[in-house]
Amino acid sequence: MTDQPLVKSKRLLKIEDLHTYIGDSHILQGCTLDVGTECVALLGRNGMGKTTLLRSIMGLTPPRSGTIEWKQEAISGNSPNKIANAGIGYVPQGRRLFPSLSVEEHLTLPHRKIDAPAAWTPERVFEFFPELAARRKLSGTRLSGGEQQMLAIGRALVTNPEILLLDEPSEGLSPVANDRVIEICQELLKANISILLVEQNIHVAEALAERIYIILGGRIVHESEAHEFLEDTNLRQKYLGI
Ligand SMILES: Nc1ncnc2c1ncn2[C@@H]1O[C@H](COP(=O)(O)OP(=O)(O)O)[C@@H](O)[C@H]1O
Ligand SMILES: [Mg+2]
Asked: Which of 22, 48, 56 to mutate to test the pocket of ligand 1 (most atoms within 8 A of CB)?
């Protein structure tokens, strides 16, 4: 009995033997991983299937076989909207903001109200990201790279997720903006939001993740504590070329 909460917390998101195709291409070839109340990093070179894995979880590129369980309920086959409403927030690679929407509209349109004292609202996002509050009427795409990333994260937060899937949040950002991304993620982890982090920037992964998975050719080929992997120059060279 005493083990129960621990087991549950380790298995918030549980993915088993996931196979996803894009057209006729067999992209994910049996991915198995799980995420609890923690930050887990998914690392791998370009084209290995990281984005496809996140899109499969969100139902945007639905898997052909395998299972995805969220809080012990099967979610694969559900619509992206239903998956998001179940508490899974997605921050896509390249931010995907809309030039026609203001900063504020990016936050008010997807806002999903929940009845909780610490619920995220557009106003709370503005308190969390003062950089955005000062620019609320601007088009989302007129922001700096770092601000755009904050807006993309804020847009996911207003859906009040319990986990965030972050696809290369540091891509194209300055070192200062990267540090801010790390700081933001640390704050979110403290607030018990889990993170599945896809990263090419090893320093960002190192600062945040407790555990890592390596994806190679659509398969998970390595799983370990983050420090075990990052301290092993042979493994790093083998899977990331760094
Ligand atoms: N829309 C698409 N059409 C065809 N192939 C795609 C498409 N999107 C991704 N792929 C292929 O799927 C593989 C994995 O891509 P992706 O998941 O984006 O990798 P990563 O995020 O690790 O860079 C790559 O070989 C890529 O060429
Ligand atoms: Mg990608």
From this structure: 22
pLDDT tens profile 132-185: 999 999 999 999 999 999 999 999 999 999 999 999 999 999 999 999 999 999
d(CA 177, CA 179): 5
Separation of alpha carbons 150 and 131, rounded Å:
9
The CA 51 to ligand 2 mean position distance, Å, reads 4
**59-101 pLDDT per residue, tens:** 999 999 999 999 999 999 999 999 999 999 999 999 999 999 9
pTM of the model: 0.94
Strands of the sheet with 163-167, listed across from one edge: 88-91, 163-167, 194-199, 39-43, 211-216, 219-225
- Work out which ligand 1 atom sits closest to the CA atom of 46: 23
Average pLDDT of the residues of the chain = 94
Strand partners, 65: 19
Strand bridging mode 13-22 / 65-70: antiparallel
Does residue 49 line the site of ligand 1, with CB under 6 A? yes
User: What pLDDT is attached to residue 10?
Assistant: 60
Per-residue tokens: 95: 């931010």
The structural domains of the chain, ordered by start, are 1-87+200-242 (3.40.50.300)
Q: Which listed ligand is nearest to 50 at the C-alpha?
A: 1
